Amino acid sequence: MIDMTYDPEADAAYIYLSRGCKIASTGEVSPFICDFDSEDRVIGIEILDASKVLSPGDWQKARRPGAASTKAAR
Q1: Element housing 45 (H / E)
Q2: Which of 14, 38, 64, 74 sits 20 to 30 Å CA-CA off 4?
Q3: What is the pLDDT of residues 1-54, one digit of tens each?
Q4: How far apart are CA 57 and CA 51, in angstroms?
Q5: What is the strand order of the sheet 4-7 is part of?
Q6: Per-residue confidence (pLDDT) for residue 64, from 0 to 100
Q7: DSSP class of 29
């Protein structure tokens, strides 16, 4: 499984595409919020209303935000 988090209270999933990069800007294309680095590369994607937008799957078992990561995105 890719590195991601899921917050059931907020019903939001976050997919990490790159680690160690600073977020330079954020753009929203509902229900997605994309974080970009200083070179406009997507480094993370937040999915709002995840339980309504995504098919059931392993994303529901993803670690909670703030929990230690077992994998790092490359």
Answers
A1: strand 42-48
A2: 38
A3: 478 999 999 999 999 998 888 999 999 988 899 999 999 999 999 999 999 999
A4: 10
A5: 4-7, 12-16, 42-48, 32-36, 25-29
A6: 94
A7: E
Side chain identity, residue 32: F
Q: How far is 38 from 64, CA to CA, in rounded Å?
A: 27
Asked if residues 59 and 13 have their Cβ atoms less than 8 Å apart, the reply is yes
Q: Against a cut of 0.90, is the pTM above it?
A: no
> 12 with 47: CB under 8 angstroms?
yes
Section 57-70 average pLDDT? 84
What distance in Å separates the CA atoms of residue 14 and residue 64, rounded to the nearest whole number?
10
